[in-house]
Amino acid sequence: MTANAAAPVRWLVTGAAGMLGQDLLSVLGADGTAEITALRRADLDITDPAAVQAAVEGHDIVVNCAAWTNVDAAEAEEDAATAVNGTGVRHLAEACAKSGARLLHVSTDYVLPGDATEPCPEDAPTAPVNAYGRGKLVGERAVAELLPEHGYVVRTAWLYGEHGPNFVATMLKLAAQRDTLDVVDDQHGQPTWSYALAGRLVELGRAALAGQAPAGVYHGTASGRTTWCGLARETYALSGLDPERIRPTTSEAFVRPAARPAFSVLAHDRWAAAGLAPLPEWRTMLAEALATPVFAELAATARTTESDRPQ
What we know:
Helix content is 40%, strand content 16%. It is α/β, with parallel strands linked by helices. The protein has a domain at 9-166 and 191-224 and 264-280: 3-Layer(aba) Sandwich (Rossmann fold). Helix 1 (19-29) links the parallel strand 1 (9-14) and strand 2. The radius of gyration is 20 Å and the shape is globular.
């Protein structure tokens, strides 16, 4: 390394085996200035404060993708979910406060009540409707309290990608198994490709380290809006399948232990303060995602079975 060469930026990614975590590693791996530590759940229990302190030490940017993600199970195990989504985040924030690292914490639209009619701004009042959202809000508040200058909360929603279970993959798999599907059409949100979000997180981390991005809440979701039914139909249309196989229904047809917000459409004004653009429109991202190998293979299988169906 020459005397004039910039030192590599030291990144720590927690929850590195998850869908978003794996995409972050792909994005960072293409960055010649990144020195990456990737920790899976088996490598780091974020509910262990001593282990968290040791893991964070020596890093410039910490991206927390570690989370309890089973929304319905959190209703029966709220303390366990909050230990990860709330207390564990506090441990990370404490460690970053001691070391001077920037923390990018991935949160959720579920901290909001879901009763709005227009896109919710970053400073909208929080009021979770389920245990999962309550636990995530504990984590958000810890970041704000302990890292007022170096803490970043990025709320996302309706996430899909190549590296984990998700709605888009499920719809394509079911297309190969069923003639028609009933899909909820009264919940509104912004389908967000995890790879695109990973890229934006990396950009935000760089801006944060350079002192160009104010700390606080950012909304990391696609632009535009649709329903689950609209997402399923667009997935089929872009994959060469018949979108009329998707039939609209209501949330009452699929009662689940945890309540879901009816309106998860978020505003994205805060990105301008960091000199960054919001994520693209959801259809644009979906088309790009469906061209990637995992989704393309699922779509090809579904098209083959659709062509074999009796007309």
